[in-house]
Design goal:
two-stranded antiparallel ribbon, EC 3.2.2.31, iron, 7-stranded mixed sheet, 4Fe-4S, Adenine DNA glycosylase, about 40% helix, iron-sulfur, 2 domains
Length: about 350
């Protein structure tokens, strides 16, 4: 029995019941694929359900405000995916009359859609014989065929794409592509793969040579940069007991573009309260503090792909009104990074 036949047999017996498997609507398949990039199925599923409930069609998504999209995305990270999602929806409406492109080449024209996503949509929705290559597929192919070419090298990307095309089942491409990805997700997992119960165990090179834990090979990641964030939370309470604070929108092409956060003082190291009571004026120029308190004595370490953010939250109480005040009860309406959302939930004002 061929490699692809074994994958198909395994998939038909073991596939999970997932909401996007109940449809071949390209809008929903595209939505699921974008959400599941760099996101586990368990985490991504509730987001998929919320997006399809709020935006039942691609036109609904295209016509939404960006802040609404970012708010719904909040907590998934990699917010450029959400912005690209919104931009691509507009392209479908404006350039394709609201109908999703029905082939690989046209799908590649959409913002945020690369080889993998275009292959997945075209094969699942339109039965186009395009091989998918994601992290799960890299792992399965590298182990089964004993390939030690780094999967994130130019050579590796080309090699594995060619290999994936060679072994795919063109006649059953919809199930085959979903099958090999599912196989990598729940059978040939990164750690503790189920080799003893694997239908490929009798011909897996990595298992035969004891290389399961060594494959696939990846080039070393870029160096992680440490940054030190001090969020200054101005707090003013009026005569009726209503509390106000301030949020700023992040601009530029750095992390969390267009999301909202408390005024930020970035430093070269972790600051002490004595330093903050002086330095806060660099950021909150129009505010005279009555008292400055630290919320968390130990910095919260928030890890991004290439940055570790050592973060402290400082409460800056004032007796005076200030510019751009926002009622505290309204701050949950703003799309914010999960780091800020966690603070809001913990502090409770």
């Amino acid at each position: 029995m061929s490699f692809s036949s074994k994958i198909l047999d395994w998939y038909h017996e073991n596939k999970r019941s997932l909401p996007w498997r109940e449809t071949i609507d390209p809008y929903k398949i595209w939505l699921s694929e974008i959400i599941l990039q760099q996101t586990r199925v368990a985490q991504g599923t509730p987001y998929y359900l919320r997006f399809t409930e709020v935006f039942s069609t691609v036109a609904d998504l295209a016509n939404a405000d960006e802040e609404q999209v970012l708010k719904l995305w909040q907590g998934l990270g990699y917010y450029s995916r959400a912005r690209n999602l919104h931009a691509a929806a507009k392209m479908v409406v404006d350039e394709y009359g609201g109908e999703f492109p029905d082939n690989y080449k046209k799908l590649l024209t959409l913002k945020g859609v690369g080889d993998y996503t275009a292959s997945a949509i075209s094969s699942i929705c339109f039965n186009e014989p395009q091989a998918v290559v994601d992290g799960n597929v890299y792992r399965v192919l590298a182990r089964y065929y004993g390939v030690d070419i780094p999967i994130n090298s130019t050579e590796g990307i080309k090699y594995f794409k060619t290999l994936a095309e060679k072994v795919m089942d063109e006649k059953a491409i919809r199930d085959y592509n979903q099958g090999i990805m599912e196989f990598g997700a729940i059978q040939c997992t990164p750690k503790k793969p189920l080799c003893l119960l694997c239908p490929l165990s009798d011909s897996c090179v990595a298992l035969e040579k004891g290389l399961v834990n060594d494959l696939p090979v990846k080039l070393k990641k870029t160096k992680v940069r440490n940054r030190y964030f001090n969020y200054l939370i101005p707090i003013y309470k009026d005569a009726e007991g209503i509390q106000f604070t301030r949020l700023n929108q992040r601009i530029g092409k750095g992390i969390w573009q267009n999301l909202w956060e408390f005024p930020l003082l970035e430093s070269k190291d972790v600051l002490k309260i004595e330093e903050v009571t002086i330095k806060y004026k660099e950021v909150l120029k129009d505010i005279k503090s009555r008292e400055v308190l630290v919320f968390n004595d130990n910095a919260v370490v928030h890890k991004l792909s290439h940055q570790h953010l050592y973060t402290k939250f400082w409460l800056v109480y004032t007796n005076d009104t200030f510019n751009d005040m926002i009622p505290v009860r309204e701050i949950t309406h703003f799309p914010v990074p999960v780091l800020i959302a966690d603070f809001i939930k913990a502090f409770k004002f």
